[in-house]
């Protein structure tokens, strides 16, 4: 296995007068017990763009992503800052439940509730205090349309979500996350369990959502990263080695490790 420098990196910095940042990390470090899993996470994620996180298995992509809405709180020590609208959401005084309304997450495997399609979206909204039936209906419809699922389910919203295909279930989970009106959407390999047609629909939905959200997505598929992301971060052994516009990462990366990874000569 080739060894690469872990200190040599290239991180694109944004001009704050031209680009609005939806989420940013500062010196993010993660420890699972004594194991140092993430070293130097300093990244800015622009609004209205999709950022893909790529890298070999175990490089730290999910660890990094899960920090962004505090999913690692109970299993790891997470040091550093995560800025959302100027607030450090990694601080101990943050109400994590409230924060997650702004920073939503969709997991690798679709995880709908064993409830109807309608209730999968309405139930969390009710728990968040929305009781008005008209508003609930409107928000269910809006989020299903945003996730490009409405046309496929609108005639039978009472159907069990578990009867949907995997691809439909994943778009339902996206709709459920969107119903809370987040600004940031985190996705951990959302298409890994889907067939190519479902993946295409999911990618189209994400492409449309990008106009309104900050989207950050872990993917194992370099083709997917190059198809739908605007920016790409390459991870290696707990370090962010390179972050740049996706076209640069795939055509003229600055770092040898990135070039080897994207050209299949890695390791
Ligand atoms: N809950 C945990 N406890 C201990 N170590 C963990 C835990 N989760 C992840 N790790 C370790 O942290 C490192 C990074 O793992 P992580 O899952 O973030 O990588 P990844 O790049 O997302 O991998 P994959 O592509 O396989 O999902 C790995 O060495 C992994 O074994």
UniProtKB/TrEMBL annotation:
Pfam families: ABC_tran (PF00005). CDD domains: ABC_PstB_phosphate_transporter. One of its GO terms (biological process) is phosphate ion transmembrane transport. Residues 23-262 form the ABC transporter domain. GO terms for molecular function: ATP binding; ATP hydrolysis activity; phosphate transmembrane transporter activity. It comes from the Bacteria. One of its GO terms (cellular component) is membrane. Keywords: ATP-binding, Cell membrane, Membrane, Nucleotide-binding, Phosphate transport, Translocase, Transport. This is ABC superfamily ATP binding cassette transporter ABC protein. It comes from Pediococcus ethanolidurans. The lineage of its organism: Bacteria, Bacillati, Bacillota, Bacilli, Lactobacillales.
């Amino acid at each position: 296995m080739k060894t690469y420098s872990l200190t040599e990196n290239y991180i694109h910095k944004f001009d704050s007068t031209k680009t609005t940042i939806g989420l940013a990390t500062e010196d993010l470090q993660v420890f699972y017990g004594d194991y140092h899993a993430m070293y130097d996470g300093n990244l800015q994620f622009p609004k209205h763009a999709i950022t893909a996180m790529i890298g070999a298995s175990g490089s730290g992509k999910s660890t990094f992503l899960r920090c962004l809405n505090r999913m690692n709180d109970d299993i790891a020590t997470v040091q550093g800052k995560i800025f959302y609208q100027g607030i450090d959401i990694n601080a101990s005084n943050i109400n994590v439940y409230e924060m997650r309304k702004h920073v939503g997450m969709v997991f690798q495997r679709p995880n709908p509730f064993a409830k109807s399609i309608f209730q999968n979206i309405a139930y969390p909204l009710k728990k968040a205090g929305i009781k008005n039936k008209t508003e609930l209906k409107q928000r269910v419809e809006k989020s299903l349309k945003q996730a490009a699922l409405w046309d496929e389910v609108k005639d039978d919203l009472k159907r069990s979500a578990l009867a949907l295909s995997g691809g439909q279930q994943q778009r339902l989970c996206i709709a459920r996350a969107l119903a809370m009106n987040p600004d940031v959407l985190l996705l951990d390999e959302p298409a890994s369990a889907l067939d190519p047609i479902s993946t295409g629909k999911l990618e189209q939905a994400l492409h449309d959502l990008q106009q309104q959200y900050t989207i950050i997505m872990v993917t194992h598929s370099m083709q997917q990263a190059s198809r739908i992301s605007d920016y790409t971060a390459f991870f290696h052994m707990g370090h962010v080695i390179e972050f740049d516009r996706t076209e640069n990462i795939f055509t003229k990366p600055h770092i040898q490790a990135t070039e080897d990874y994207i050209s299949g000569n890695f390791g």
